[in-house]
Amino acid sequence: MTDHASNAANYPLLAAPHVQLYGTVDEAMYTNFKAQVINAPTEGPLVVSITTLGGDPEMARAMGDNIRLIREYTGRDTLFLGKVAVYSAGSTFMSAFPVDSRFLTRGTRLMFHERQMKATVELNGPLNALAYTLKAKLHEIEDSINIQNEGFEALVKGSDVPLEELIEKAPSNWYIEADEAKRRRLVLDVI
């Protein structure tokens, strides 16, 4: 374990995040996120913290898109602070922040995995129509893989983690401890 005592002093803004998220990434978190962003100061960097075991990847992408738009329309810096657990949809949200704007607290774990799907395909009707049902489901799966891999690319962009390694390890839930995330340049620092 690395001594991080002096690191916190280097980043005083991280002591009091403007937006603090915790729990399941879902529509309620997204609503809470938007309200906190609206009430945050409009000058200086925007600091967002999250603790989550995961949730809805589309809500994470929507929150991430808000972060991107803030940066692009205002030129404002956005800082990410992961606390304790940043799993699944939490890491999807983290991917919206450049690696040099990501921080983790000591002992935080990241977890990356493939998107999940649970579906039942019912085949019932004329044979010619059944092929369209199967093709539609296959297209859904293919597009979900594309979305997943776009997120994986954003997650590792600027880091020392090759995309191929993440794609290889994600099916079995890849857990990364904060110090390793720093060593691999997935985050700027650990506080």
Largest sheet properties = 7 strands, mixed
**Number of alpha- plus pi-helical segments:** 7
**Helix content range:** 40-55%
- SSE order in H/E notation? HEHEHEHEEHHEHE
Characterize the overall form: globular
The averaged pLDDT comes out at 93
Could you tell me how far the N terminus lies from the C terminus, measured between alpha carbons in angstroms?
12 Å
The amount of beta strand, in percent, is 15-25%
Q: Can you give a write-up of this model?
A:
- With 191 residues, this protein is α/β, with parallel strands linked by helices.
- The chain has seven helices and seven strands; from the N terminus they run αβαβαβαββααβαβ.
- Strands 1, 2, 3, 4, 5, 6 and 7 form a seven-stranded mixed β-sheet that branches.
- The longest helix has 30 residues, at 127-156.
Could you provide a short overview of the structure?
By secondary structure, the chain is an alpha/beta fold.
Walk me through the topology.
Layout: H1 7-10, E1 19-22, H2 27-39, E2 46-52, H3 57-74, E3 78-87, H4 89-94, E4 102-104, E5 109-112, H5 127-156, H6 163-169, E6 174-177, H7 178-183, E7 189-190
Parallel strand pairs: 1-2, 2-3, 3-4, 3-5, 4-7
Antiparallel strand pairs: 5-6
Helix pairs in contact: 2-3
